[in-house]
Amino acid sequence: MNTLTLPEPIAGYFAAEHNPEALAHCFTAQAVMKDDGHTYTGVNAIKAFMAAASAKYSATTVPFALKREDGFQIVRAQVSGNFPGSPVDLSYRFRLERGLIASLEITA
Q1: What span, in angstroms and rounded, lies between the C-alpha atoms of 104 and 12?
Q2: Alpha-carbon span 106 to 16, nearest angstrom
Q3: Whose CB has fewer CB within 10 Å in the chain, the N or C terminal residue?
Q4: Contacts of 26 (CB under 8 A, 6+ apart)
Q5: What is the pLDDT of residue 20?
Q6: Using CA atoms, how far apart are residues 100 and 106, in angstroms rounded to an integer?
């Protein structure tokens, strides 16, 4: 199996998917995250959302592709967990700023 090499803050994001405190260190203070029709602004809001989602879905995410497009890093990943339709492939659209995640949009 090929190993996907991700930029550091993105690799840190996926490595910390069940650790909201570690996850917070991947984002800028005013980062914006969009997922499932909701927008979360700031590290505390993102951390709270991720903690709740982790507890509810027990999801595991495995990135399998990376492309760069218009200043964004787009990661495709298979997500499996306690939710209807599992597993599912999702797109994670990251914008990096000064070595941290400034924005993230997750879509199907």
Answers
A1: 14
A2: 16
A3: N
A4: 9, 10, 12, 13, 16, 100, 101
A5: 87
A6: 17
